Amino acid sequence: MKSGTQGREESSLAFGGQALIEGVMMRSRTHVVMCVRDPNNKILTNIEKINSLSERHKILGLPFLRGIIGLLETFYLGVKGVYFSANAVLEEEEEKFTYKELTIVFAMALVLASFFFIVPFLLTNLFGLKGVLFNIVEAIVRLAMFLLYLSLVAMWGEFKRILQYHGAEHKTINAYEARVALKVVNVKRFSRLHPRCGTSFIFIVLLVSILLFSIMPDLGFFARLAYRVLLIPVIGAVSYELLKLSGRYKDSIITRILTMPGLAFQRLTTREPDDDMMEVAIKAVEEVSRLSGS
Hints:
Elements (H helix, E strand, L loop, with lengths): L3 H11 L1 E5 L2 E5 L3 E7 L5 E7 L3 H4 L8 H25 L9 H26 L6 H25 L4 H18 L6 H4 L10 H18 L5 H10 L1 H17 L4 H17 L5 H18 L2
Antiparallel strand pairs: 1-2, 2-3, 3-4
């Protein structure tokens, strides 16, 4: 039988979070909890049980395949969370997803992901480089585009509160993993940075893309361009597995070195939250922890 401490540590590895509009979404292996503060200053909570494809079909739960499924499901739940929070803030009835809406959203995500892989490749071709050096410079160009994107988002005044809720999410998870009582006075003293954040995931993607593109045969310009699109699911799956490993071995020197860039750039994607925001994040973590039995 697991001790309470061991159970909490293992369950925390499965928790994933996302900032919403005036709220926070937390996910465990079995449930997703969305907590949003409405215009009347009440915290609205929406709880849904997760029936993951990787849990229902054993083959989809295998390493790397589970990464692709996990990323798709995370994206789906993320969009759903934004819908719930937007409707809660606007005091409208919750909208229902349609297959048409989901198809449009997934198509837009694929276009955006392709843009971040194709444009750096095209720009790097202007330098006339070859081999591993080409892939490194391409990754640097991709990183520069990513940093420009983060900087523009961070400068957007209306987006500041979402960045604050992102900080509240991280501070609360850090407090939870430190096994302290989830009260605002305790949570506020923890860091707003967290190694398993999506920002850190982006840097893992950059490293994996350098290695993968370096071992692919050079079959000409158009074949190399096709790699940048066709291998996106593979890069995502490998990066997903590495991110899970970083959570399990978060105290190792290698993990700390690999997550340092992501932690540094979380200073762009997070802001210090106020007490009300931390209350919302605490509510989300407490609910998902209770439902997970940890």
